[in-house]
Every structure is written in structure tokens, then in C-alpha cells.
């Protein structure tokens, strides 16, 4: 049975404010990571096979040689326009998932750490279970 999350506070934000905040956050994240993604894509393009992979330095030099410093940001406008409408739907659903979990936390989704048992087996434990 799903918990009723309609009465949960969302930092005092109305739904439309929450959607705009999610949009701005998503656009900021995508734009901040765009140069890193450009380097990764260039590394993939320079590599003809996995045995002959390109390095980060080779990718950076290739971008600078062909397009200059602006090459790291070529296409960022199209990505930013696409990220704006794509991100907001995930913000409320993530918030609802967090609010619907026990005690308002995602306790069940916390990372588990393997612990060795004396008999040689291992069990998964969550931080705080010990």
C-alpha cells in the first residue's frame, strides 16, 4: 500500500516551483558535465578498438586542435534546451519516493556492505545495522 505523500512538506515549494527548481537543477548538472562528456565522446571516436584506446590527453588535444577551447561546449545549447523539459518529472517522483519510504528516508535503499562470517560466508548489512 502506497503512503499518502500529498501532505508531506516540500521545503515550502508549490508544485510548479518544484518543477522549475528541478528543471534548473537538471540543466545546471547537464551543462556542468558537458565538457567531460565531450572528452569521453572524443575518446570513443579516437579509439578504433578496445586494445588501442585513446587517453584523456589525446582527446583534449584533438578537441583543442580541431575547434579550440569552444570545442568543449559545441552543442551545449541543444543539450540545455532538451534537459530543461526532461528533468522536472523526475524531481517530484524522487521526492515522493523519498517521502513514501519509512520515516521519510530511503532506509531500504541504503548501500549494503559485505561482512565476512566466521564460517567463510558473507552477509549484506546496512550502515547502522551493527
UniProtKB/TrEMBL annotation:
UniProt keyword rRNA processing present: no
Membrane topology summary: Multi-pass membrane protein
Keywords: Membrane, Mitochondrion, Transmembrane, Transmembrane helix, Transport
Database matches in SUPFAM superfamilies: Mitochondrial carrier
Extent of Low complexity compositional bias: 92-111
Solcar repeats: 13-100
GO biological process terms on file: iron import into the mitochondrion
Disordered: annotated span: 84-130
Subcellular location field: Mitochondrion membrane
Superkingdom assignment: Eukaryota
Family under the similarity heading: Belongs to the mitochondrial carrier (TC 2.A.29) family.
Stated name of the protein: Uncharacterized protein
Amino acid at each position: 500500500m502506497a503512503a499518502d505523500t500529498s501532505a508531506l512538506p516540500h521545503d515550502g515549494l508549490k508544485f510548479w516551483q518544484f518543477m522549475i527548481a528541478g528543471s534548473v537543477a537538471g540543466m545546471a548538472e547537464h551543462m556542468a558535465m558537458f565538457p567531460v562528456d565531450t572528452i569521453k565522446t572524443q575518446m570513443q571516436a579516437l579509439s578504433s578498438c578496445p586494445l588501442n584506446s585513446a587517453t584523456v590527453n589525446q582527446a583534449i588535444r584533438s578537441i583543442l586542435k580541431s575547434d579550440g577551447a569552444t570545442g568543449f561546449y559545441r552543442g551545449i545549447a541543444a543539450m540545455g534546451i532538451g534537459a530543461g523539459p526532461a528533468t522536472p518529472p523526475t524531481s517530484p517522483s524522487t521526492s515522493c519516493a523519498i517521502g513514501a519510504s519509512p520515516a521519510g528516508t530511503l532506509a531500504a535503499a541504503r548501500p549494503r556492505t559485505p561482512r565476512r562470517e566466521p564460517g567463510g560466508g558473507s552477509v549484506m548489512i546496512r550502515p547502522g545495522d551493527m
